[in-house]
Each structure stands twice: as structure tokens, then as C-alpha cells.
## 1
Amino acid sequence: MDLKTKLEELAESSMTAIKNSDTLDEIETLRVQLLGKKGALTDLLKMMKDLEASERPVVGKLANEIRDDLTERITDKKEELEQQALNEQLKEETIDVTLPGRQYKKGQTHVIHQVMEEMEDLFLGMGYKIISGSEIVSDYLNFERVNVPQDHPARDMQDSFYINDHYLLRTQTSAVQPLIIEAHDFSQGPLKVISPGKVYRRDSDDATHSHQFHQIEGIVVDENITMADLMGTLEVMSKEIFGADRRVRFRPSYFPFTEPSVEVDVSCFNCDGAGCRICKHSGWIEILGAGMIHPNVLEMSHVDSTKYSGFAFGVGPDRMAMLKYGVDDIRHFFLNDQRFLSQFHQKGEE
Ligand code: DAH
């Protein structure tokens, strides 16, 4: 086969190959194979030197035309493929504004705080103020000023985390009592306060104990406050939180800061008093401690205990949440497991 025919065949087959190239990679490979230094066309051109002198200009011209033609075709094809790739990319990156947006999960109020807020709403409705206290207090405020002297055995039950010799993480919200009572101006009306917050004890953690938990302290002081006021208030509270058909029971008890003292039980939400595993077969569940504020506590806060009297109570919202929702381990509340926490929705939260 002579060179001219070879060139024509190469031109023919190359045109088909260019046409059939689908990707930029393919066309680039083809360009190198045809027009590169070691390419097919270059190889054929090297054979020019073997031609008759008379043939060279003719074949040379043809070879140049073929090279120019192929170069142009390859460039065109490249542009076409580049445009195609760009179009596809644009198509993929088009924003479809009719698609729904990405859903972000909204947070929700922690179940303990839901119970606390429910209590706050209730007591605000009964004319109470909310005052929160410091979590780091002197042992003097945490104990002495609520009538628990240095060597009182009650201190053993409330071992805590000391910051130094005199300051500790409060073991009870009762530690807010002294300053709140002391600061109250009785010419402005009765003292009615609740104080919710965190407390700490060096308990070993188990299903019903955690080294950190919550309390809500209630304090009412005025002239002629009696045990009947305390009982009425706690009965309203219990029924509001646990349901109107719950019964409330008061048992005599002992706390250093109240005299007399009571512990308050509500009839078991699960068995309605018949006895079950949750109420340890007693039919009742203890929810709080309370009593008439000890005269010593009033006097230490410069309140005349012959003129004024009051009641106080301390209730655990963690305990309440466990009872309300049948949660059997207090530690669930503090592990931050979304699968657990997201089950408790408050009104208005989804
Ligand atoms: N501070 C007590 C405790 O942590 C609870 C308590 C009992 C608070 C009786 C009171 C009260 O105000 O009157 O165990």
C-alpha cells in the first residue's frame, strides 16, 4: 500500500474514532495516538523521505491537510465534550426550590425542668415568688442556720462535696431559707417563695440516688400560719401534679429545721393504693418532707417567732418525674440519651 493510501485510510479511521469518542479522556488519548510525537500520523510522515521527489509535494500537501483537519476535528470534539460536561454539572447542581428543606431537630425542655416549670406555674398562680439560691454555700448556711449544729447526726445523712473548710456544694435547697427569711419585709405582706435548684450529696449512685439532683424549697411565713395551711397547700400541689384522684397522706417525721415535721405520701399512681412493685406494696409513694419552721430558724433570721410562724417543704422534682412517668432509674435523667429524653414532650413542643 502506498503512503498516500495509508494517509487516506488513517484519515478515514481517525475521523470515525474522533466522532465516537465519548469522554475528554478518550479524545485526549486519541490526539496523542494520532498527532503526538510517536503518533500514527507522525510515523507516516517519517516515511516521506522514501518517496520519489516528484511525489513529495503532493503527498506532503495531503499529509498537512489531514493533520490540520484532524487537529481541528479533535479541538471541536473537545469543546463539544467540555460543554456537555459543563451542562451535566449545571444540571446536577441546579437548586430545586420546590424540594422540602432539610429538617433540623428542635431541642426540647428536659423532663426534670418540665416538672419544675409545672410546679413554678402552679405556685406563681398561688402568689408565690421564685428566688433561686447559690449552689456553693457556707456550711453555716447549709446547716447551722437551719438548726443543724456542728455535731448533729443529720449531717452524716447529707455528706457533700467541700470546696474548702467552710464552703460546700449545698446538700439541700433548705440552705436558701435563712437569707430569704432574713431579707423579707413583713410590712409588705406575707413571705411566699419557692426556690428550685440543684443540690449535691456524696451518695453512692443507684437507681434512686444520684450525687446531683434537684429540689424545690417552699417557704411561707406570716402571722397565724398553721399546719392547716401547709396541708392544704401540699394537697393542692399533689393533686395538680399527679392527678385529682390522688389521695394525700401526712406522716409524722423529724427534720431539724421544722417542728412538727411531716412526710407526705401520695397514693400510688400505678395501683391506686392496692399495692404494687412501684410503691413497694404499701399503696403510697413518699414525695416530700415538710413542717412548721422551727422557731430557732426564724429567730436566727431575726424574725420574732412569737409573732410570726411559717411552713416549709422540700420536694424532689426528679422523684416526681419518676413517679409521673413511671421511670425506674433516676440516672436515666442525667445520661443525656436522646432516645430516652425525646419521649417527654411538653405542650407546644414537638
Ligand atoms: N431539706 C430536706 C432534705 O433535703 C427536705 C425538707 C424537709 C425541706 C422538710 C424542708 C422541710 O423545707 O420543711 O431532706
## 2
Amino acid sequence: MCGIVGYIGEKQAAPILIEGLRRLEYRGYDSAGIAVSGQKVTVIKEKGRIDNLKAEIDRVYPVGTVGIGHTRWATHGIPDRSNAHPHSSMNGIVTLVHNGIIENYIEIKNELAEKGYVFKSETDTEVIAQLFDSLFNGNAVETMIKTAARLEGSYAVAMLVKGFSDKVFTMKKDNPMIIGAGDGEYFIASDIPAILPYTKDCYIVKDNDFVELRKDGITVYGIDGEEKAADINSINMSVDAAQKNGYDYFMEKEIYEQPKAFHDTVSPLIKDGSITLPFEFPKGFIKNLSRIHIVACGSAYHVGMTAKYIIEDMARIPVIVDIASEFRYRNPILNENDLCIFVSQSGETADTLASLRESKARGAFTMSIVNVLYSTIARESDGVIYTNAGAEIAVATTKALMAQLGVCYILAAFLAHEKGLMGDDILRNFTEEVLTVPEKIKKALCSSDNTKEIARHIKDRQSMFFIGRGIDYPLCLEGSLKLKEISYIHSEGYGAGELKHGTISLIENGTAVVAIGTDDALLGKMISNIKEVRARGAYVIAIVKEGTKGIEEVADKVIYVPCASRYLMPSITVVPLQLLAYHTTVLKGFDVDKPRNLAKSVTVE
Ligand code: F6R
């Protein structure tokens, strides 16, 4: 949430900051700003998208080779110019940008107001600047440490400090921050894509690191003020991943990258028909494994729900799936025989991270399924399986979810095999079939023209339903979420059997219902449910496997998808759901990649 960039070197900072902010705009886009340090510190900020800021920068053209920038997703204070970052302290000691939330900002603000500090914004961020100002003793690092000691909550901060015009400073807690090392220049970013065009050599800033950047080097200090070693790692991610490459939107590109995302994720885990995970469970753990908890948010939660159907059926281990914002506060019952799995594209989602920490503290073994390398959830889990989906830029997830599903299939089969419920031959057949899924996803992508046509029929509807049974049910939630988050059409996902317990009263003439029926064993029941909503006037779009008989008689439109065994169908069925949301949104003329009020990587709770 929110994006931070920074630069120090020989080049003019403003164009580099703007370019970096454009690459991070998916993290927040209600206002943006930069501060450039030259003869003096020049702050430029504007409401709205980066283009507004760029126009103002072109007019003012701030000169200087040191600077910081920010693109905002509002938490405290409305999205306007006064609340946009950077914020400067009253005495001009510091100018800073911040991601995260300071929970005790009101208490500190009141204290500082009593000392005569005057605040110009409603943000918690300005409180950090004024606090730093009030504690400043001429030593920027010491003052950062003292400031951090007063802050409760989460933060990643980049700052310019008066008297240190050839330096940038940064500190962080529970929010990501990386430093890119170039040749005679250094970069700061809250997310890797911002610095990829310049360097792949990065230092991942740790919690309670306090870093001084110069154009010829960085020095990292710990909370005790002592210098620490800074290991620079090379990041394996291409600049390409952060480009649209001829597609109109990142979401479209990412939908079409799904066969590769799936393949690149599952194939390293399969060797000669057996499965090797990139980490080991403690000795005897699986034998005594009593329960699995899967914890995640949004689409990643839907992956968890899908995994429950597969793991319980294949490995006969009870699976409890929780939304992370509920799990962390519901006093969960956990012990050392429990496996807690955290699913997260960004690896930084605040509630998922807090749930991971809570589970570790309660003695459970933790593993994560994460897309962003070196992210906090990945680093703090006992075991991690990376989804090799590449950088996902569109706010609505597609290819990361596809890769997460791949990991769940593999994990379910691994557990079933370890528990002796799946023999070597069946495992071999299963892994062989998993490797055919990318071809089937490609075929499912061919339904694009059909879904575009259907999108014309639904784009002006006020409300929609997605219904399904069994393993199709979590996909109904996902299809519904995808549609509503980008097209702004209200929609709800329901277990088809649940509809008549209240919700069916909302079905009236012309209500659109997407009915998913890919499970042969449940198809007959789905057809009955379709008839029930159709009898009440619903316009039904059915998604079924190729060769399904009798569906055209009961549905208004049918999308056929390639066949696979039941466990693997979610990867195929989800494709037309994503395409439906995408085409509907394009037809409505909305920005597919940057839906209103949302941001990628939710680092506040
Ligand atoms: C929806 C979407 C979100 C994320 C959720 C979790 O399209 O992208 O619902 O799935 O915010 O984010 P991560 O996976 O980064 O933890």
C-alpha cells in the first residue's frame, strides 16, 4: 500500500523518481509527490494520478541529484494535496515519505502540539516528521532511532534531513523497503519493480535497520546504533515483467501469462513423477499432523478454500480456512502438531503477516505460499514455496492465484503420498496430469471472444450472482470478487444449494447468474438450481466442461472449458471468470489495472 522511491547519485533525481513512481502506481494512486534536494529541498505534490504530478514537475523542474517520492493510498486524511507525501517538519529539519500506519499518532500529535508544533495535514505521517524534528540532535541516525522508539504501528520511511543534502535516510518496521545498488548511485523502493531498470543488486532492509545512503555507499545501523553488515543480493526478476508488452492492460497480460506462471511454479516441485518440496517438515511431523490451517485474504483466501476441498479429499487431514483479519484476533487453538499455511502474492499483507507471527508464537509449524521473493512472510515462515509467477502489477490478482492453485495441488498430493493414501503410481499419474494443466489453461484462454460477447450482455446490469457446488464454490467467490472489484457491478458468490435459504428472493427478471458446474457428480443438482433461478427470470451464463450434455437447454449462454480431473479443474474454470471481469470492465471504460479505492499489497490492517 502506497509506494516509496528514492534516489541519490549523479543524475537529476526528478525524472528517476517519476519513472519509479509510475512503476509503483499500482500500490496507490490517489495522490503523489516528490522532494528533491539541491540548493534547497523542493517539494511538489498533486492529487490524483502520477500524470498530474508529472505536469507540475515539468513546470517547476526541481534541480538536484538527491530525492524521495511517494504515491499514496489514503489511510489517515482524505486524498488531497495537503495530505499527499512528502511531509516536512515545522522547522524544516526533515522531509519524509511513509508507508504504513502509526497507531499512537494522536497521542504524539497532542504532545507535540503542546510544544508548539503546528500540523498542516491530517496524516499520521506528518507526526513522524514533527517528532523527528523535536528529537533532532544533529545526528540523523541517532534521531531516527529515537523517533522509531516512540512509534507504534508499521512504517517504511525515507527522509531528507537538513544539513545532510548529500544523503538519504531510511528506516522500516513491518513494511517493505529495498535499496538498489548502482554504479555511483543508490535507489530506494518499497517494491522491486521500481528499481529494476537500473539495477538488480539489492539490499533488503530489515525491521529496525536504520540506513544512511550516499552516492558511493550505504551504512546500515541496528537499533543499538552499531553498524551492521549489508548483504547485497542479486534479484532474479526481469524488467519485462513490469512492462505491458503490447497488451492494453497489465491484467490482460497477466491473464495470458498464466500457463507459464503455473508451469514455472509446479515443474520445479516435480521430479520423475515424485514431489520434492523446497523445505523439509520436522521429522515425524506429517505422521502426527492433526490439522491444517490456511490463512489468507481476498483471492488468496479463495485459494485456501479450494485447497481445503482438495487436501481433505486426497490426504484426509482436516483443513480450517480463515480470513487473516479474523484469524489473528480469534484466539485460534493451535499446537505443535498443526500446520499453518499462509497464502500471499505480495508476502507483505499486514493481517496475513500478523497471523503468521501469532501461529509461530503458539508453536505451530508455519509455511507460506508467496510470490514476492524475500518478502517478510516468506522470510519469517518455517518453510516457503515460491510461486514463480513473476511480478504481478494489476491490482486484481490473476496469475499469482493460478500459481498458488498449482502449489496447492502439489501439496495435497505430497501429503496424501506421505500419509500412504496415494501410491507411487497414482502420484506419478497425478503429477503427469498436473504438468498438462498449462496447455488446458491455454485452451481456456480461447474462450476470450465468447466471454467478451457475454460481457456485452452483463455490463449494464446492477447486480449479479455466481453459484456453484463443491470445488466450484470457492471459484464463485473468486469470480464474484474479480467482477465487482474492477467493474463495480455488485455481485455475490454463493454455494448453489444455499441460495434458497434467503438469497433467491433477490433473483428477478433479468438478474444475471453465472452458474459453474464442472463436477460431474454434482452436475444434476446444479442443473436443478439453474432451473430454479431461471424460473424466477434469471439470465443464466453456465460454465461447464466440454461435452456436458443438456446445458444449452437450461442456460442462456454457455462457456465450455477443457476437461481435467476434478481436483485440477479450478485452474481451468477460473480463466473465463477472469476474462468476464476483464472484458466487462473494458467495455464499461474503467481502468482495469487500478480500480478505485484499492491498492496492491495491503500493508495496513
Ligand atoms: C483480489 C486481490 C486481493 C488479494 C488480497 C491478498 O483480486 O488481489 O483480494 O488477493 O489482498 O493479497 P496478497 O496475496 O498479496 O496477500
## 3
Amino acid sequence: MGSRKKIALIGAGQIGGTMALLCGQRNLGDVVLVDIMEGVAKGKALDLQQTRGVLGFDVDVTGGGTGDYGLIRGADVCIVTAGVPRKPGMSRDDLLKVNLEAITKVAHGIRQHAPNAFVIVVTNPLDSMVYAMYRITGFPKNRVVGMAGVLDTARFQHFVAEAAGCSPQDVVGTVLGGHGDDMVPLVRHCSVSGVPLRQVLDQAKIDAIVERTRKGGGEIVALLGTGSAFYAPAAAAVAMAESYLRDQKRTFPCSALLDGPYGVKGLFVGVPVVIGAGGVERIVELELDDAERAMLTRSVESVRRSVAETKL
Ligand code: APR
């Protein structure tokens, strides 16, 4: 056995394929793409193998069907996008029934073949799908996490950068709560290289950015006509995997199991966490004012309703 890490991407669709390219380019580890559409997984893997000479990376990219979840055996990280994306006019919660079926199968496969993996769930509705993954795998809470906040924050960063005429890399911000239209972009905690956002943009512009961030996924669904956003979701999930694999201990907003922080118990909700070799190593509890707390409470209630529908 070599010392390379193994990354299983379960779901080889738009996000899965993009993640495979990003993992390869960053030489994060050997990648295996798995999909119910075996040919898609195999074809994308072969295509990606053929980028290696041009792009200059040497990790392996292979692919196969879900008939053999054994392909993920021994994976260090599993990133799950299995399921269907939204169509125009749908909410993320409209996907629950069909995607719960996919997550259930995938969770059994992971439990059997990759029992030590760090699992990142991307499939929507995110906060209830990551909850289902946690319940079905029975993995400890530090090894199951949902990707949402990194993406929502990246959208917020982009909109602020565009309005302020600055680099998105200098926009520091975070988004709390569920991955739905009532997520909570934390304006008070946002700055451009340390300069508070409220000194950079006027309130009307900030309000418009908050609203656009909340509906950021839907805006792209409407434009694409088929499918949902995939470049930024893929980049966000790979950043989380990299922090785990390289023990970077980056602080990211992620959907993590709360058992007390923010006054929430037994739900996966987006909060800042530290991701390192220990998985979700720590939950960071920000001080919230009354308005922020009220928004978070509303968002948590939406998550609670979605989780109840899973009947898990
Ligand atoms: N096991 C493996 N793969 C599956 C399974 C399963 N049980 N069920 C579905 N798939 C595959 C589909 O065949 C498809 O190739 O998952 C892939 C999903 O890819 P896309 O349809 O291209 O969707 P994508 O844009 O990648 O989004 C995936 O992430 O952000 C969320 O809302 C989005 O829930 C959606 C998911």
C-alpha cells in the first residue's frame, strides 16, 4: 500500500466531476468516482486521467458503479453528492424524499467499506441529509459534516467584493444556520481586511447583499435551467477535505452536530468549526446579539422541520 490518501467522491455528476479535477490539481490523493451511472463515473475518470500530463499531477483518478461500493474501500475522505439537484422553482426541501433514498444507500456503503472515513455531505436538503448520514453510519460526530457555509460565505464574499471593488480574498465573513433561504449572514462579523463592512458599504447595499446571498443558489438554478451550481460547491467541499487531509485546522462554517452550543441540541446546523486531522475538532461559538439570535432560531426551526421529515 502506498502512502497516498484516498478520496471517494460518491456521485460523479457536476459537482463530483469538478471535485475530482480540483483534488487532482491539488494532488490531495488518489480519487475514486462512484455513481449509479457507471459509465459516467468511468468516463469522467478516464477523461481526468488524460488531463494529468497536461496539468502536471500524478494522483490516480478511477471510477465505477455503485453495484460495487467496494471501490471506496479504505477511503480517508468520502464526499457525497449522490442525489438529484434542484430544478427552477424548487426549494432544497423539495428534494428530501428522493435524496434521502440515495443517502441511505450511500451511508450503508460507507459504513461497510470506509468505516474510518471523514464524511462530507453536499447533497441537499443539506442539514437533514447530513443528519441522515450521521444516524445511518453511526460514525462519531467529529467525522460527519455538511458543506454549506463555506459556499454561502463564498457567495457573500463575491457580492461584497463586487460592490466594494476589492478582492474577494480580503472579505472576511461567516454565515450561520441552515442551508436554506433563512440562513444568517453575519454582517457584524464581516470585514474587508479588518475594516468593518458597515464602514465599507451603506446599509441598503448590505441588505441587498444579504438577500442575494440567501437566494444565491436559486439565482443560479434559474439561470442554468437544468441543474444547480457546481463550481463553487465543489471548491468549497474540496477546501474542507484539504483542511482535514493536511491538518490545516482552518475555521470554516459547516453543518455540524450541535449538542449545546448556540442553544441547539441534536441537530446539524451551520456554525464555524475547526477542521483538522481530528475531523471537526472544535465548534466556535460566536457571541450573537438579539437580532442575530432570533434569525438563527428561525433558521434552526426550518432545519428541525426538515429533519423531522426524514423520520430518523
Ligand atoms: N449513489 C451514487 N450516485 C448516485 C446515487 C447513488 N445512490 N443516486 C444518484 N447518484 C448520482 C447521479 O447519477 C448523478 O450523476 O449523483 C449524481 C448527482 O449529480 P448531478 O445530478 O450532476 O448533481 P450535482 O449538481 O452534482 O449536485 C448533487 O449536491 O448541491 C447538491 O442540490 C445538489 O443534491 C444535489 C447534489
## 4
Amino acid sequence: MRFESFSFAPEILRAISECGYQKMTPVQQQAIPAIRRGQDVLASAQTGTGKTAAFALPILQKMIDKPSETQRSNTRALILTPTRELASQIADNINDYSKHMQVSVLTIYGGVKLETQAQKIKRGVDIIVATPGRLLEHIQACNLNLSNVDFMVLDEADRMLDMGFVSDIQKVLQAVNKNSQKMLFSATFSSSVKKLANDFLDKPKLISVDKQNTTADTVSQVVYPVEQRRKRELVSELIGKKNWKQVLIFTATRDAADKLVKELNLDGIPSSVVHGEKAQGNRRRALREFKEGKVRVLVATEVAARGLDIQDLEYVVNYDLPFLAEDYVHRIGRTGRAGKSGVAISLVSREEERTLADIEKLIGKKLPRITIAGYEVGSRDLLIKHLQTRRSFAKKQNRQDNVSEQVIGERNMQGRRVKVKNSSNAKIKKSK
Ligand code: AMP
């Protein structure tokens, strides 16, 4: 179904067409008419389904249909979202969709001076996209009047609750106009999300575009079994040999992310890192360089990567599997967006097999395993046998000392350095 069938104003249709959108995605087909009718919405939709446009476009249309009766300084739409990156991304999208309208959009999140944001709020803003904690600070400092908000969106509600924002969200909701139209988007529906939806929404229209906890069909998923200590070497080899050009890699910790980036750069693969300890400016620069194709790899931790929207991202690599199986679904949602194809690769060590089993249970399918020659995972039995042989050999040689240390030393040897040609001529479609 095309956007024209929903009689959007010409300024919105023009912007949509300039974004290159032709047909509506399923969540847009269902959410747009409901929101335009004034219904509350409860949508089960994961990132990458086009959910931002699904709420932003009808909100913009309704702002045209019914211009504000109050002063311009009153905010009409409030969107709460878990991370700064996601807030920026949503604001960028809304700016794109409203570029032929007179609408101001402001992002509010931590890590930026409160006072600077307060001044911008005072000047008047139509749409606020915010993370809950910082927004609450402004509410408590009386910088913000939300009593005229007509539209309120909770985006990635499950993430916000996972990140411990529940009480902040509730306090924000108390400050918002009770008669506003409300929308809640979430990829998963835990009991706490259901409770929030119950408290927050009034007879919502239920929308579900993907079964809960399933992965998009457009993403092909594969597992490479490998020893933990050889993951770095394998990832360099895969990127180099297969000439992957835009790869998002997830690591379990900030330390691991920093180390990996260093190693990849040494291997000749231009890489950047985003994690919670990096300053906001650094994170933005890393993301920009990645989007522009100046670096081939972006290494990220779970939290930092939330909300990253990189168009046409083909490869997501789980260098370490996530602690929670649900996070696997979120991670690989970074690829295969809006119907495009993507590949999700998981490097799985022996110790991670159990987590992998949890993931497979959650997504309801077994993932194909590909063993790369030279990277076979030795079985524990083989390792023990190997140790025993060495020990008896050492005994014979009257060199009983340090045998196990030798073996362990061999296992801990740094991986080979993999020299990779820099594919600086990689053509990567620039994201908006
Ligand atoms: P979202 O789920 O909102 O993060 O959107 C995922 C990606 O899909 C973004 O890059 C959007 O720009 C893009 N997108 C949204 N709607 C459409 C559409 N109807 N056609 C093509 N791309 C879209």
C-alpha cells in the first residue's frame, strides 16, 4: 500500500518521497490509520520495521489538521526513548519527514548541559524526543510545561524498563496532559511492559507485525564455532577475505571493545568504537565515520548500540553472545531493516554454547553452524588426552615440570596477526 492512499498533506508526501519510501511497511499500514483516527496504540514492533514513521507521520499530519490553539512555546508531541542515539535518530527522522513544514524538534538527553537545553525549551519547541532521566530533571526544574502535549509516544518500552526507567517514566506521565493520545511501541512484551501499557493506554488498538521474539526473515543468521582466544583472528579474516564493508560488531564489555578496535586497526581494518565511557561527541563522530564509510567496522557494547540506525547495514557480528537471549533479537535487528537483506554472524565459543541454546529456543530455530578450517574448536576430551600424552612424554624425558603450563601457554598464545587490505574504495550508501 502506498502513502498516497492515506491522503497525507502534500508537504508530508513530498518529504516521504524524498526519503525514498514508496510503499508502507506493515506496521505503518496498521498504525497510521489508527493514530489518525485518534486511537491509542499498543504496537509490537521491533527496530527496523519502520515504526518511527508509523507514529511520526500521523502525528505530523494531525498537527497540520489541527494547528495548536495555544502559544507556540507549548510542546505538542513528546517521544520517550531509551538512549541518546535513538533519540537523535528519531529526531533526525522527524526532521526529514517535516522538512516542508514549520515544525521544531528538540532532543533532550543527558551528557549535554542542562542549561543549554533549558534555553532551547524556553524558545518554544513543537516536538520533544527525550530520554526519561534527563526529561524528568527538566520537569523537576520547572523548565518544561507538558500540559498541552497532544501526542505521547513510549518507544522501545521494553528497553526503557530494562534500563530501570520505570519510575522516571511514571513521573513523566504524571506531568503530561491526561487527555493526550498515547502510543506504546515495544519489541517484546514482558509482564512489566504489559502493566505499563495497562496503566498508560486507553482501549488501545493492538498492532503486531512480527511475532514476539522472532527475528526478521530478511536476516540470515549463522554461527561460527571458535575458541574465545581466536575470535579476533577469525573476525579479521572474515572481514578481510569476504570483503565485508560495513560491519557492526558487538562485544560483551567496554574493555573487550577497546581491545578489539585496536587489534582490527593493526590488522589494517579501519575501525571505531562506541561504548558508554566514550564522550557523546566521540560516539557521534564514530557513528558518522561509520555511516560515511570512513571506517569499515564499528565495535559497540550492548547499551551504546541501542537505537543505532544505519541504513543498509549488511553485517552484524556477535563477537560475544549477549547475556540475555532477548538481546540477540535486538542486536541482529540492526540489519535486514525495512525489507532489505542482512547477515548476522555469531562467533560462539564452547563456553557460550548454553547461551546459544537459549537463543535458539527463544527464536524457535536452530542456527546453522559453519566450522572454518583452521579454527576448529578442540573438544575438552581431546585437550585432556593431549595433556596426558604430554605429561607422560615429559615424565619419560624426566622433565615433569611446567608441562601443563606449556600447554596452557600454547593455548593462550596471541592469535596470528591477519593483514587485511584496506578497502577504502568501499561504496557505502550514506545514511541520513
Ligand atoms: P525504524 O524501524 O523506524 O528504525 O526504521 C528502520 C529504517 O527503515 C529506517 O532507516 C527508515 O528510514 C526506513 N523506513 C521506514 N519506513 C520506510 C518505508 N516505508 N520504506 C522504506 N524504508 C523505510
